[in-house]
């Protein structure tokens, strides 16, 4: 008899699902069938599904059940279904990168993270939709995807965020217990915030990117999206580690420290200009309440000033130069015109005009900016700010004007490669989620996770669920 009631199973923590599997109140095969059915039905509703993987999932679930019967449970993820962003290679299964020119693309190997999760006993139930080419060209509209705009489970007239749109929607709607996303510059933080879930951007080099679509080699990172900080910690433990197939991976071992150190964390607050941004007042109020909660949990909170650097300009030049180097042949080809978003195409072409001198100057500035960021961690264990100002934008929002030039946790990761956790911190004026970002020093994921877990023990924002949403009557496509 299942220990879950109603839809509770679909929003259960990884620990609770693991206990049910080990107690044999539900089998991995049964759990997998339930989530396959739910993803097959709900995935298209939110434009979140790229490819269902039932044959592979059931084979992996049967293997997990054999391990569970024998008591061979070396990983907390044994038997638990998940979804993967569609830029991660999966052997014999389409990997389309969210882009029409690559709709027929199939690899004969698995990405390193897919292999590691299989070894941990997790069950891949589907590939999840994303913004085309991870949005590297600077897309203008949410519709910049082969699968249409990512729809937010809290309100389908609003965006789920990019570029890991399908991963976030799937977790928020209870279509998968957790999912893998990727971030070059905001692609885990934004959808986690907009969809009211928890997202972890690991340190650059913490997780192998072998077998993932390359966008910008010095910025790309792969990380989990889940219901809680604790869930993210368990997933990271399974996918982290050195990989000879990714020369940038570090040899630092990651072991998730679940026990929360409640006292003594020094938290620095990075000020943002809330100005007249929609939802700015509500974001500021929710952030102040989050700081109050953290103080009440025994943490020390003080102001931390932003080092004075043109973060966005530096990051954009580095990104553009690396994207051009990787994708030059495609950008110069006629296939570029098959992309959905006009801004994306223009941005990619524009990267070809960058010079070696442009890239070199930005690389030098990046070193200085990163050093200034690292110096802040001499005074603070972590840096706090709202993940974004305001709620999820509507599907017709011009993203180039909405996000242009903003400071935030995402640019810190793009430039300095530091880890960050985004956790839900309340709701805005239209009932859509807001996010709190916790940024740590290099390889200090356990610090940001422990702060996040302490916050989530005092609040219940991460346990809130969206009401069932009906899809739009017509798909929205803007270019």
UniProtKB/TrEMBL annotation:
Organism, scientific name: Candidatus Segetimicrobium genomatis
A Pfam family reported for this protein in Swiss-Prot or TrEMBL: Amidase
Residues in Amidase domain copies: 30-449
Protein's name according to its UniProt entry: Amidase
UniProt region (Disordered), positions on chain: 460-479
Organism placement in taxonomy: Bacteria, Bacillati, Candidatus Sysuimicrobiota, Candidatus Sysuimicrobiia, Candidatus Sysuimicrobiales
GO molecular function: glutaminyl-tRNA synthase (glutamine-hydrolyzing) activity
